[in-house]
Amino acid sequence: MMHRRRHYRRGRRPTPILITCKPRARAFNPEPPSKEEPIRLDPAELEAIRLTDLMGLCQRDAGEAMGVSRGTVWRLLQSGRSKVALALVEGRRLEILEPTPPTNVKNGEG
């Protein structure tokens, strides 16, 4: 499970995203190596890509599997696909970030 952060502590607390598959690799390196800043793929973006593109789920079903709305899956797909395409086209290293551990939040703090 991955927790998202609120900006400026306004609004409702974001729904945690369920990530069921841990990636085997943490990074992909281009050949020849690039000196540019690596592209960092969020675990939720990777999970959305895995469920829709690899497993063939529609966005609604992927959202149910991840515990988020279809719109959130759409946003994660747009962002993740864009990052993967940028890494491929520009020959930049693609790093998959580690999921953040869930935190216990009490009394609206955190």
SSE blueprint:
Layout: E1 27-28, E2 39-41, H1 43-54, H2 59-66, H3 70-90, E3 94-96
Parallel strand pairs: 2-3
Antiparallel strand pairs: 1-3
Helix pairs in contact: 1-2, 1-3, 2-3
Please supply descriptive tags for the structure shown above.
110 residues; mainly alpha; 3 helices; 3 strands; disordered C terminus
Describe this structure in words.
The chain is mainly α. It has a domain at 49-98. It is built from 3 helices and 3 strands; from the N terminus they run ββαααβ. It has a 3-stranded mixed sheet with strand order 1-3-2. Helix 1 (43-54) packs across helix 2, helix 1 packs across helix 3 and helix 2 (59-66) packs across helix 3. The longest helix has 21 residues, at 70-90. The radius of gyration is 15 Å and the shape is globular. The protein starts with 26 loop residues before the first strand and ends in a 14-residue tail after the last strand.
Largest sheet: 3 strands, mixed
Strand content: 5-15%
Average of the residue pLDDT scores: 86
* Tertiary shape: globular
Q: Kindly provide the radius of gyration, computed on alpha-carbon positions and rounded to a whole number of angstroms.
A: 15 Å
Please give the share of residues in helix.
25-40%
Q: SSE order in H/E notation?
A: EEHHHE
Distance between the termini: 17 Å
